[in-house]
């Protein structure tokens, strides 16, 4: 055991000397929470105070009341020459609302008046604007329908046989859990990113520097060498996770969550639980990255392989964040642990059986990869990169 501790210390000292490996981990740990913070602030700003929507409206004179209603909702006519009060050119969306020529006559008769909305719904930049316009048109149509019924002496409620009352039992913390579920994904991914450079350097890098064969020639068992490398990469990954959590706790405090009616609180209990759950994931990540790096012949080849391999845990994490995973995925590594974290954030009971089984599976995978590395390092093909 003392030999393993000594070798772990040696690996960490070597890693600390390599400023690029340290900075690569720090960039993600510090930069990602700040970027997420900026993204959330931008998103909240757009959701709480939507910008004015300028579209092209044909035959606007035929429907003055409709135009007035849309204007009160921030939707108005604009064209390529339109400018705001400061003289700046308006951002006119490529959405066209065509009011029929007989709109006024049909409305006067109490008949259906035709309006045509022309837009490209496959354009992602226009989808929110299109939905906003459709929602306001439907609201206006419903209001006009109610007024027509009242004018005929009919209570508008007769066309609403069912009155739906929704009692939202979500707490502020559980509402925030939807947002923090996405943030949790970036935290778990920190485990994979923070130790990746060290994993490559201590495997493929050592082989390129011809120090791996020298290390294996020492009177230390191959198992001790492999375990030392796994533990050192795990330590690096856990440090990256801790730094990510601290930065998230600080930066998320500046996001105005209250404007959306919920709170996001990264408590000390959450940080401790995240560190506990993150430890098996960090060990699996270290084993996986070292195993793949040893299989690669060069440092650059290892980087390419790991970039592809890391897509798998990211997909599992995304499936858990957006709740699109089938039930079987909740028992797998990463997604199972992340769902337990999300349950904790939302104030629900942690699915212990799911968490324990997914963590056990994670450790079994880590042990299997470690055993595979031990076996592979007895091959000259792996040691010398032949």
From TrEMBL:
<feature type="transmembrane region" description="Helical">
    <location>
        <begin position="304"/>
        <end position="325"/>
    </location>
</feature>
<feature type="transmembrane region" description="Helical">
    <location>
        <begin position="178"/>
        <end position="200"/>
    </location>
</feature>
<feature type="transmembrane region" description="Helical">
    <location>
        <begin position="21"/>
        <end position="44"/>
    </location>
</feature>
<feature type="domain" description="ABC-2 type transporter transmembrane">
    <location>
        <begin position="28"/>
        <end position="334"/>
    </location>
</feature>
<protein>
    <submittedName>
        <fullName>ABC transporter permease</fullName>
    </submittedName>
</protein>
<feature type="coiled-coil region">
    <location>
        <begin position="123"/>
        <end position="150"/>
    </location>
</feature>
<dbReference type="Pfam" id="PF12698">
    <property type="entry name" value="ABC2_membrane_3"/>
</dbReference>
<keyword id="KW-1133">Transmembrane helix</keyword>
<keyword id="KW-0812">Transmembrane</keyword>
<dbReference type="InterPro" id="IPR013525">
    <property type="entry name" value="ABC2_TM"/>
</dbReference>
<feature type="transmembrane region" description="Helical">
    <location>
        <begin position="270"/>
        <end position="292"/>
    </location>
</feature>
<feature type="transmembrane region" description="Helical">
    <location>
        <begin position="352"/>
        <end position="371"/>
    </location>
</feature>
<keyword id="KW-0175">Coiled coil</keyword>
<keyword id="KW-0472">Membrane</keyword>
<feature type="transmembrane region" description="Helical">
    <location>
        <begin position="226"/>
        <end position="250"/>
    </location>
</feature>
């Amino acid at each position: 055991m003392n030999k393993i501790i000594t070798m772990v210390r040696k690996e960490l000292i070597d890693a600390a000397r390599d400023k690029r490996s340290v900075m690569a981990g720090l960039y993600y740990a510090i930069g990602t929470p700040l970027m997420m913070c900026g993204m959330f602030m931008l998103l909240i700003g757009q959701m709480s105070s939507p910008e004015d929507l300028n579209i092209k409206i044909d035959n606007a004179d035929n429907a003055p009341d409709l135009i007035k209603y849309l204007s009160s909702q921030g939707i108005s006519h604009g064209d390529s020459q339109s400018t705001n009060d400061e003289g700046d050119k308006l951002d006119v969306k490529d959405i066209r609302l065509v009011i029929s020529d007989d709109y006024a006559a049909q409305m006067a008769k109490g008949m259906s008046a035709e309006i045509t909305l022309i837009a490209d719904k496959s354009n992602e930049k226009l989808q929110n604007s299109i939905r906003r316009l459709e929602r306001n048109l439907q609201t206006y149509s419903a209001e006009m329908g109610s007024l027509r019924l009242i004018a005929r002496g009919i209570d508008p409620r007769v066309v609403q046989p069912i009155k739906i009352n929704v009692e939202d039992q979500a707490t502020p913390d559980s509402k925030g859990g939807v947002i923090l579920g996405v943030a949790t994904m970036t935290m778990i991914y920190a485990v994979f990113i923070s130790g990746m450079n060290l994993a490559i350097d201590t495997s493929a890098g050592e082989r390129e520097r011809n120090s791996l064969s020298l290390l294996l020639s020492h009177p230390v068992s191959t198992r001790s060498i492999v375990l030392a490398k796994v533990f050192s990469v795990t330590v690096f990954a856990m440090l990256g996770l801790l730094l990510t959590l601290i930065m998230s706790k600080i930066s998320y405090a500046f996001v105005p969550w209250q404007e959306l009616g919920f709170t996001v609180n990264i408590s000390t209990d959450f940080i401790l639980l995240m560190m506990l759950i993150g430890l098996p994931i960090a060990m699996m990540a270290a084993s996986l990255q070292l195993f793949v790096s040893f299989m690669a012949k060069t440092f650059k080849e290892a980087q390419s392989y790991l970039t592809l391999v890391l897509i798998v845990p990211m997909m599992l994490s995304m499936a858990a964040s957006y709740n699109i995973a089938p039930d079987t995925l909740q028992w797998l590594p990463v997604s199972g642990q992340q769902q337990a974290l999300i349950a904790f954030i939302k104030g629900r009971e942690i699915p212990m059986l799911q968490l324990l089984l997914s963590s056990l599976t994670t450790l079994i995978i880590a042990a299997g990869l470690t055993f595979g590395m031990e076996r592979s390092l007895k091959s000259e093909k792996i040691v010398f990169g032949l």
